[in-house]
């Protein structure tokens, strides 16, 4: 991949000076259109060999364009708040919103490549990281992001010369440290590993672009032109949602589904319930005070039919917890800032610290439930969501998050009974709306969506727990018990 | 202040059980109205003596109300991201938005009181902290927040008994640590200091409410009733903006103002400019690479007439910086999430880390400029803004932030010349809008607002630098030079 970036590309001063003014004007105009139309975010990754002009390029982009709409991020050491979240959290929190440009100096590629170069990871681990990165970038581009990945390259000999010449000049001497020379010794290894990573991560949506870094004029002009072309292409040909070419999902032809296997008649008598409630709330409380709990976090996620009893179940959990250590996130319509970001951003921002519990009252599954049924998103969007959600959850679980997913199932008759009851009780008046009645009419469509969801996202690492919730007592205990079991199991693993 | 909280208040079980269901229903209804109407945030502070039921009360509120709209915050150790910002940053980042309730367990009172109790601060320092807190809370209530401050008290004897009885019970033994007994020894000191703090911070808008904590039923019922009453009062009698009773501001009767003293004819020839630019950009670059710079942060704030040259000046600064270490915040219309918070929240969220530079292109002064002139806020709002902005800036400066404020002044004729030029140049087409022409018609009103702003917010710790900007070269050098000087001065202090 690096051959044509070792040819000694050069641009003479006259050519450069002649081309730059027009290029800058075009770039500014493109950026203006981007900011005004604000239809998509631009993510620029800057990677490559030391001394090949990475930092200079980031500064150049700021100098050439309107720096008010560019955010450059150097991803150095993680802060403690970042260390307690999944690895990608630090990137999610600074993703550029629509209309803005985010420049990542040191990106999600850095750690996997460096780890492999210094021998701290295996080839297979690097491949897996690249695989995850491809999924992540695919999600971003599906969400509309324009991703441009620049790799600045120098041949070994050029890099050596460059370090030497920087060292000689008193003005730039500070830029060359012992570490640079140590890293230079790893040049061959670094070249090999990054060549492999770049190739594996050069997808149709977001290919790596290798730029020879030795000559500043060549580097600048190349970078600027590629950036301009990419921006213009996207601005002038508004991307259309790709049609879902996959085979359509369909309900089993015999209509038998996972809910048919649930015994909806299960009940728990009041007395038994009181005893079990005390038992499992006590247990949950003890678990959260266990020393090992400080290295975990918990996400409990509730989905279910309207009037399925999510709120009541959640209160039985929080009743066992210290209010200082949990947070309930009721998932409602996204805010303006959330709408300017990829779908999952609104959930990433709420991920718990270690030792904390976050309860999602409705969740990221909205995409494959309400958004699918009500056609708030395209078929292509909800079809790709299954694997995106699985990827997301895998990252949570890898980060020692105990992820427990509950679906509260009630029968159609029971729902009717509860709706009517709610209408009668002043206390609960705010729990029943016109929308609930409308949704009820779509019972079958929702059921299909739920079954697809369970089929596609009940994974080994994050299985769905289907809760027979016609009897509230039974449901609440099943939920508490499941939660305790999963936390216990995780503690034993940690 | 504690006398009536040492009387041994008690509520019997029958009374309690009779009153609680209605109270809970009323609380839920009030909370529902709050969430639906979403007109103001509720901030509940929970403080007091150990063992007096602080934690229990927080849990109680969550149990009685809808926990999805309550966020409880235990303010423990600061994270490293918090340590690099002004002390109040950690509170600002978790303030509840309109329609929500935030419960602070351990609040902005904790540190000042504890520091004084353990002898790490002087009486005068405590008083100053309380003073700052009063300003902060006054700002919050002016912004519409409902602040309810509960202090749970126990007499010394009751506290001793309570710790003993917790220790005896195997179920609660874990709750009593050596630290608790150490703190018990400081009871008298703590009582004295907190009594003083509570009295000094019991303002008309946000008085402390002392509740005897010994009897749980008394405590719960009292807390619930006070909370309900406070909520209902605010919900049912929508607060009106207080009229500004202060004497109106007026321009000096002879119309002589600070701008008349500026020599607007100052110029810098191209050659001199080039030399100075290189000199001060080089200097600025060196300063930001100085080791001492890692303990500082810089905020450079730009206000000025339309077409005053803010953008160009900013680019001369960023040209000297590494893009990874600065961020430009163009201040535009607030987002939905920002509108749900106090005015200053949108700026607090962008405060720089140590070693970083944040440049505000327009700033918090919008309130006393455009919002005043265009009547986007009430007179009371912009009148109180002067002292709020001064308070805010004082916190920045105390936190080793170098705060540099520039006003770019041009004459009315020069503005006209630039507007016309911009209309002609395609490159600058996006820099001139209808709004600019409209604003120009209000030149005098803006001038009055600017003069008031300078008079009231050019303070010793954060003076305004008025920049004669008819000549762009002169302005740019003056700005770079000032910035360098202020960073240097700060470095010598650190």
How are strands sequenced across the largest beta sheet of chain A?
2-3-1-4-5
Structural class of chain A: alpha/beta
Name of the CATH homologous superfamily of the largest domain in chain A: P-loop containing nucleotide triphosphate hydrolases
Number of helices of chain A: 20
Report on the architecture of this protein.
- 2 copies of one chain form a homodimer.
- In chain A, α5 packs antiparallel against α6 (123-142) and α5 (110-117) crosses α9 (187-200).
- In chain A, the strands form 2 sheets. Chain A has a 5-stranded parallel sheet with strand order 2-3-1-4-5, with helices on both faces. Chain A has a 5-stranded parallel sheet with strand order 7-8-6-9-10, sandwiched between helices.
- The first copy, chain A, has helices at residues 13-37, 54-64, 80-83, 89-92, 110-117, 123-142, 156-168, 178-185, 187-200, 216-236, 270-289, 310-318, 336-339, 345-348, 370-373, 379-398, 412-424, 434-441, 443-457, 472-493; strands spanning 42-48, 70-74, 101-105, 146-153, 208-212, 297-304, 326-330, 357-361, 401-409, 464-468.
- The radius of gyration of chain A is 27 Å and the shape is elongated.
- The model of chain A has no long low-confidence stretch (mean pLDDT 91).
- Chain A is an alpha/beta fold.
- The interface between A and B is large, with 46 and 46 residues.
How would you summarize what this structure contains?
With 494 residues, chain A is α/β, with parallel strands linked by helices. Chain A is built from 20 helices and 10 strands.
């Amino acid at each position: 991949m690096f051959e044509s970036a070792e040819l000694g590309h050069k641009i003479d001063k006259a050519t450069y000076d002649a081309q730059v003014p027009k290029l800058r004007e075009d770039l500014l105009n493109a950026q203006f259109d981007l900011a005004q139309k604000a239809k998509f975010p631009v993510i620029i990754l800057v990677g490559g060999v030391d001394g090949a002009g990475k930092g200079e390029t980031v500064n150049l982009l700021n100098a050439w364009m309107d720096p008010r709409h560019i955010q450059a991020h150097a991803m150095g050491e993680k802060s403690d708040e970042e260390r307690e979240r999944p690895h990608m959290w630090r990137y999610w929190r600074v993703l550029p919103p629509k209309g803005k440009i985010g420049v990542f100096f040191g990106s999600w590629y850095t750690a996997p490549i460096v780890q492999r170069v210094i021998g701290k990871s295996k080839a297979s681990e690097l491949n897996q990281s690249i695989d995850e990165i491809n999924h992540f970038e695919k999600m971003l581009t599906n969400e509309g992001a324009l991703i441009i990945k620049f790799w600045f390259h120098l041949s070994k000999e050029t890099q050596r010369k460059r370090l030497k010449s920087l060292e000689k000049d008193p003005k730039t001497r500070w830029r060359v440290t012992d570490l640079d020379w140590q890293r230079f010794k790893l040049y061959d290894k670094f070249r090999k590993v990054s060549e492999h990573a770049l190739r594996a991560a050069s997808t149709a949506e977001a290919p790596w672009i290798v730029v020879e870094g030795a000559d500043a004029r060549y580097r600048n002009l190349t970078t600027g032109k590629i950036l301009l072309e990419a921006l213009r292409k996207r601005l002038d040909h508004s991307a259309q949602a790709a049609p879902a070419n996959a085979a359509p999902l369909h309900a089993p032809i015999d209509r038998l589904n996972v809910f048919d296997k649930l015994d909806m008649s299960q009940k728990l008598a009041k007395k038994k319930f009181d005893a079990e409630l005390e038992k499992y709330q006590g247990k949950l409380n003890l678990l959260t005070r266990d020393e090992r709990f400080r290295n975990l976090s918990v996400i409990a996620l509730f989905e279910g039919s309207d009037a399925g009893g999510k709120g009541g179940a959640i209160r039985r959990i929080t009743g066992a917890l210290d209010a200082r250590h949990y947070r309930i996130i009721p998932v409602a319509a996204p805010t303006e800032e959330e709408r300017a970001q990829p779908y999952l951003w609104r959930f990433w921002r709420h991920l718990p610290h270690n030792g904390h519990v976050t309860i999602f009252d409705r969740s990221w599954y909205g995409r494959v439930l309400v958004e699918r049924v009500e056609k708030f998103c395209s078929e292509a969007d909800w079809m790709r969501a299954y694997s995106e959600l699985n990827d997301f959850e895998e990252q949570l679980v890898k980060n020692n998050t105990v992820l427990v997913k509950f679906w509260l199932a009630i029968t159609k008759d029971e729902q009717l009974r509860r709706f009517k009851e709610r209408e009668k009780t002043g206390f609960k008046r705010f729990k029943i709306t016109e929308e609930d009645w409308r949704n009820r009419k779509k019972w079958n469509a929702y059921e299909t969506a739920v079954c697809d969801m369970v089929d596609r996202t009940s994974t080994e690492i994050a299985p769905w727990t289907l809760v027979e919730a016609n009897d509230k007592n039974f449901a609440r205990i099943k939920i508490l018990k499941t939660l305790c079991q999963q936390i216990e199991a995780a503690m034993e693993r940690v």
